[in-house]
Amino acid sequence: MSEISPAPPSQSAAAPSRMLWPVLWPLAAALAIYLIGLWIPIPGVDAERLDYHDGFTGGSSIRMASIFALWTGPLVVAIAHVEIARLLIPPLARWQAASARNAQVLVAITGLIALLMTLAQGAGALHAMQTGRLLRDLSTGGVVASLAAYCGATAVLIWLAGRLRLPGPGQGILLLMVFPMIASLPSELEMIFSQYRTGMFLQSGLPMDLLVPLAFVVAATAAAIIVARGLQTTARQTGAAPSAWLTLLLWPPVLANTAAGYLVLLVWWVLPDGVRALGWPLYAAHFVLTALLVPLFLTAYLRVPVRPADAARGLQAMPIATIAALQMALVLGAVLVRSFYMLPSAFGATPILVVVASVLVLAELLRPATAPATTAG
User: Fold this and answer.
1) H, E, C per residue of 230-277
2) Chain segment 97-117, per-residue pLDDT in tens
3) Which residues contact residue 368 at a Cβ distance below 8 angstroms, ignoring those fewer than 6 apart?
């Protein structure tokens, strides 16, 4: 995603099937690897206590104690930080766009940052499991083995992300990011209906509690489809690379969320203890800042150098105001609905955008190739 690459040209009328297979098989393989990895616990986990906890959490304890518990977290954080640096530091973007070797060096640096983030997040996960008495081996060797398992899982994830051949480097990681949200959807829905049956979390009656989240998901998905199809058409008409509209649609909310987190953290440090204890003002400020930062990152993407140079063709024709309005509405809408109703994580702003964009990309690959016009002699 750090650079925008043009889509490969169609070669024949049979091209759709040949182009779709390289996308589908890595996706199916990645999903299979993820589902298998969810059942492989990290070294040192107490299996008996894990089974006991699963009786109360509906299977989520196994996922939290697996080698894929961190999943895309470290890699997405690493990419987001590198992207923010690239957008805010023009010399870095120009250096990266100067040659393929420079771009590969930045990719390697991103992978190294992801592994360092894995160590940090893995240590936090181990501490949480230790507090819950899910670990039986608390020795230094056991901790090192667990952190090594997390790092190995992240290395596999980096490899998988590189195999997903959606247009543009970095887009595959967002698709992988949705896997846990979709995988947890059945258990989340089961928990929601169970809580509704017992009378928990009712705001305005059972029908409204179900209809409001459903209405948001339907409206958000419809709006995302309309905007994404418009971007896809604009890219096709102007000759822009497919990765251009994908980058503009998918990444600004992720970067804005990361930057907003740091700004809120800075504010948190200077607030009185009484305000810190409330929690909700900072929670609300985080998402309001996220929405406000979205247009800034969108505009920054229009100015950053890309490689090759003609990959930026058509970017200026993209309806930036429409993209920003959609992203801001999804970010704030999901937060508002989740504040008062039960909304599964699979129906947040980023998952909706990623799923819609991915389906449109796959549908585009199925389109018959247009044969070039020939003139009779």
Assistant:
1) HHHHHHHHHCCCHHHHHHHHHHHHHHHHHHHHHHHHHHHHHCCHHHHH
2) 888 899 899 989 999 999 999
3) 13, 16
* Burial class, 297, CB count within 10 angstroms (exposed 0-12 / middle 13-18 / buried 19+): buried
The upper half-sphere exposure of residue 15, i.e. CA atoms within 13 Å in the direction of its Cβ, equals 14
Q: Is the pLDDT of residue 244 over 80?
A: no
Q: How many CB atoms lie within 10 A of CB 259?
A: 20
Is the pLDDT at 38 greater than 90? The verdict is no
Q: Which residue has the tokens 């497919």?
A: 242
* pLDDT tens digits, 352-365: 998 888 888 777 76
238: left (phi over 0), alpha (psi -120 to 50) or beta: alpha
**156 against 133, higher pLDDT:** 156
Contacts of 336 by beta carbon, 8 Å cutoff, 6+ apart: none
Helix, strand, coil abundance in the chain, percent, nearest 5: 75, 0, 25
Residue pair 67/152 in contact (Cβ under 8 Å)? The answer is yes
Q: How many CB atoms lie within 10 A of CB 263?
A: 14
Is the per-residue pLDDT at 6 higher than 80?
Answer: no
Instruction: Categorise residue 281: left if φ over 0, alpha if ψ from -120 to 50, beta otherwise.
Output: alpha
Judged by DSSP in three states, 169 sits in coil
Mean pLDDT value across the chain: 79
pTM comes to 0.80
Give SS3 for 41. strand
Distance CA 80, CA 257 (A): 9
Q: Which of 316, 309, 299 is nearest to 255 (CA)?
A: 299
- Kindly tell me the sign of the dihedral angle through the C-alpha atoms of 38, 44, 46, 47: positive
Q: Is the dihedral of CA 338, 341, 346, 349 positive or negative?
A: negative
Q: Identify the band that residue 168 occupies on the pLDDT scale cut at 50, 70 and 90.
A: low
- Ramachandran area for residue 279 (φ above 0: left; ψ -120 to 50: alpha; else beta): left
Distance CA 56, CA 50 (A): 10
Nearest-angstrom CA–CA distance, 42 and 62:
10
Separation CA 66–CA 43 (nearest Å): 9
Give the helix ranges, DSSP H, for 271-348. Answer: 273-278, 280-303, 320-340
